[in-house]
Amino acid sequence: MTNTATQSGDYATRMRTKLTEILRPSRLEIVDDSHRHAGHAGADPLGETHFNILIVSDAFDGKSRVARQRLVYEAVADELRERVHALSLKTLTPAEDA
């Protein structure tokens, strides 16, 4: 499994841990994109508010794009309530990632 993040702050680490435990991805990339949203809604000078996530998991097999995103949002619900403002998601099955 590939697990990468351009910045491993507390929230990125928490999300990585939860997504790994719940969705067992074969590939997971979490990129903190907060710096690009400075001054926008939900931005915080401390960062870790906006993330791009690429996740490849068998759990997405047979599910619509919306159903896949719901699985991710449910997994990181605490982080979304506490600090994370926005997620840009790319959710793929292993076959789609091949």
What are the key terms here?
98 residues; single chain; alpha/beta; 4 helices; disordered N terminus; 4-stranded mixed β-sheet; globular; 4 strands
Give a summary of the structure in a few sentences.
The protein is of the alpha/beta class and 98 residues long.
Gap from first CA to last CA: 14 Å
Mean pLDDT metric: 85
Strand element count:
4
**Unreliable parts:** 1-8
Biggest pleated-sheet summary:
4 strands, mixed
**Hey, roughly how much beta strand do the residues contain?**
15-25%
Structural class designation: alpha/beta
Overall, the morphology is: globular
How are helices and strands ordered from N to C?
EHEEHHEH
What oligomerization state is this entry in? single chain
- Calculate Rg over CA atoms: 13 Å
